[in-house]
Amino acid sequence: MKVTLLGTGSPEAHVSRASSGYLVEAGDDTLLLDCGGGVFDRLLQSGRTPGDVTHLLFSHLHSDHMMDYARLVHARWDAGADNLGVWGPAPLAEVTRRYFGPDGALSFDLVARTELPQSKRVWQERGGALPRPWPEPRVTELRPPSAVNGNGWTIRAIEVQHAQPYLTCLGFRIEAGGKSVVYAGDSGHSPELEALIKDADLLIHWCYRLSHESVPDPDFAATSPGHLETAGLAERAGVKHLVLTHWRVQHDKEVVLNSVCNEVAACYSGRFSIAQDLAEIVP
């Protein structure tokens, strides 16, 4: 397996970080985990095309994890690629319909592109056949715990605590070639998450707040663990490589990141990395 960090930021606008998106090459497939704002451009900058993505999986439906969903699907369709397989929690099917359905947000664009004579000619000149169908992502809504099986890889999905009851939120464990990668999504800690990450070769975990920062209430602390809590979790679970991601602008300063590295090293014995856009990791 190889992992490319496409987006390592948060919902906040950041010149150096796109929102959440992680590319995993496993077996014969290329899996994209989340597709937040800016991830589409990072995909191109990594040397891939939209058609290279074979599977798209959403951890949850916050905008910073799915803002570029429509852009990816539309670009694949415009290039003549097959309909993309997409997995994630409900109401993913309804979100998709509201983008690409007969009365969806993109319906006006799609009518023009499939009915205008000039557009039809351009499509035929590019090798397309008429009538031109609309994009239709193949959506599977996951009800955790569940699994997705591919060619030489498997994914286990569990529910993690983040934005319930408004959004169902998932964590994923991908296994291929004797290696394991866990993408925790935006996750609070739980016995179920600790079991999911047990002995993982790579754990990608969000770090929306730092451990020494005050929190407004216990619920916020429980669903948004700090860097030291996550380092301790990784140490207990025997994780070999911990990557902290989802960095906020206010934390993305050299002095802060250096402090995080020093503090994590004091309580975590594995390899540790601060996520950066376009970084590549081989577990």
Overview of the molecule:
- With 283 residues, the chain is of the alpha/beta class.
- Helices cover 28% and strands 24% of the residues.
- It has a 7-stranded mixed β-sheet with strand order 6-5-4-3-2-1-14. It has a 7-stranded mixed β-sheet with strand order 7-8-9-10-11-12-13.
- A hairpin with a 2-residue loop joins β9 (170-176) and β10 (179-183).
- It is elongated.
- The model has no long low-confidence stretch (mean pLDDT 97).
Helix proportion of residues, in percent? 25-40%
Number of helices: 9
Mean pLDDT: 97
What would you report as the Rg, rounded to the nearest angstrom? 20 Å
Strand content: 15-25%
Q: Structural class given helices, strands, pairing?
A: alpha/beta
Largest pleated sheet: 7 strands, mixed
Inertia-based shape: elongated
One letter per element, helices H and strands E, the order comes to EEEHEHEHHHEEEEEHEHHEHEE
Q: Could you give the count of β-strands?
A: 14
Q: Tell me the span between the first and last alpha carbons.
A: 7 Å
The low-pLDDT segments are: none
Strand order of the largest sheet: 6-5-4-3-2-1-14
